[in-house]
Amino acid sequence: MASSDGKYQVVWPCGERRLKVRKLARRLDTLNGKTVAQLWDYLFAGDEIYDELESKLRETYPDVKFVSWREFGSTHGLNEKEILASLPQRFKELGVDAAISSMAC
User: What gap in Å lies between CA 2 and CA 86, rounded to an integer?
Assistant: First the structure.
């Protein structure tokens, strides 16, 4: 809205920060002996990519274990809210130490 002095009232385009910044989780020093969850949105070629990624990671970390993306369901779509909300508990049940989340556009 313009005032008579030629100035306009504007609104900052970024929303108000609602969450406080938290420290990042401690990084793993190795994947050997660790369990890694695979999360995917069922788009593009994640099934092929995860097969290749597993193979390559096992070359460097022969004792790494994987929990397949098939275990979790699509992280995008009809049930995404429920699936994402269930991840902390599912990770605990499955002994997951780390996760790889992939998506396609």
Answer: 49
Domain borders along the chain are 35-102
Contacts of 60 (CB under 8 A, 6+ apart): 31
pTM of the model: 0.75
pLDDT tens-digit series, residues 26-84: 899 999 999 999 999 988 888 899 999 999 999 999 999 999 999 998 999 888 899 99
Residues 6+ apart with CB under 8 A from 21: none
